[in-house]
Amino acid sequence: MRADELAELFKGRPLFRGQHGFYVLGDARELLKLLPSGCADAVLTDPPWGVFKDDPYDDFKSFLECRDELHRVMKPNSWLVFFFSIPRLFELRPYAEKFSYKWLIPYLFLGYGTGSRTALGTEATYGLIVVFAKGRPKVAVPRKDVIVADELPVVEGRIGEPSFKPTAVISRLLSAFTREGDLVLDPFAGYGSIPLVCELFNRRWIAFDIDPLKFRVAERIIKERRVPSIARLKKELFKEIPKASKAKQHPTLEDFVRESK
Description:
Number of strands: 9
Structural class: alpha/beta
Strand order of the largest sheet: 1-2-9-8-3-4-6-5-7
Strand content: 15-25%
CATH class: Alpha Beta
Distance between the termini: 30 Å
CATH architecture: 3-Layer(aba) Sandwich
Number of helices: 11
Helix content: 25-40%
Shape: globular
């Protein structure tokens, strides 16, 4: 199915379109059920890790509950690639029971750290990407199994937002595990770093996220194809959801739908 045909499956839900795909606001556990079986060439995502206490949507359990639906919507020989928390790697056993574990790819922050702390009491200087497979997919373009974290020219300055993953790293993953024109699914799209890079490198894409503020920020970033200060965008767009802004609390999905009517 074409991306525009797939978008019709989500008619009536908050959604925006890019040139090569679309982003739906909602719970991935429910939205995945609307996709046809075997439609995605690859899944590339940054799922909730359950480590950010100030984020009400950082629910690791939701990622575990998506396992079977992700397997269903993926093509028979396809890749499941995702950024993940180093301390929680051993909690991925349910995914290892459904998919074939293939590799870990570290991405290095040279000259600066990630902002998170290690069990050794120091700042972490690398993150990990986990590679699983459904069936026996082939690598599109062989790449080194270590990546230097960097940004593409569309990023204006240092991001400083841990859930916005480095765009140059994403471009390397796309080139290794997908081909031009492939359909990439990102069920936890957040601020839109993965859909943005899909736009730039001619991959079709489908993105979901439950956080209304991240949805709004991602819409601006993907449509403009540039990444300004995310902190400034968050502050600006937060004011557009009056109830949440007045209460000075994180907007809910219900707030967004109510204010959009």
